[in-house]
Amino acid sequence: MHHPQLTPRTTPELTPPVEELEKQERRLVFRQFTYDDAWALGSLLVEMARERQAPVAIDIHRAGQQLFHAALPGSTPDNDAWIARKRRVVERYGSASYLVGARFRAKGTTFEESSRLDPDEYAAHGGSFPITVENVGVVGTVTVSGLPQLEDHRFVVEALESFLKL
């Protein structure tokens, strides 16, 4: 039986290879990540979303504190629930939520079937990306919810590339 809320077992035509997703994480690293950086990155995401009329919610957390949140027209409280579930995956695994899901799919299973984590609390769907500081590690997350999961992931990656001028 198909459950639309579960991650698909395989989507080879859509899913970038795990190696490509891992390269994104190695490349998208900050020298530091301050309150001002959170505001600037969040504002960039809002600007991008407004230009595209994307119905998203945006969240930035660092060390357990929410530093930025915005909800754009068309987003709903459900997007905030998805943000929390995707963010928990990044906090637990130290990798992008989409990459975590892709790693399970690459093994021929799904996150929901094999992680042993409560799907009401954790979602390995695209849209949450680790905020990694060089020589420190993962210090937080930037998360978008409201688009199909690969688009959420790509939206965050595009914003990080622009912010980090890569």
Automatic annotation (TrEMBL):
Pfam families named in the record: HbpS-like (PF03928)
InterPro entries referenced in this protein's UniProt entry, alphabetically: PduO/GlcC-like, PduO/GlcC-like_sf, YBR137W-like
Coiled-coil blocks: none
Domain of life: Bacteria
Family annotation (Gene3D superfamilies): Haem-degrading domain
Protein family according to the UniProt entry: Belongs to the UPF0303 family.
Classification via HAMAP family: UPF0303
Name of protein: UPF0303 protein ABT211_20465
Organism of this sequence: Streptomyces sp. 900105755
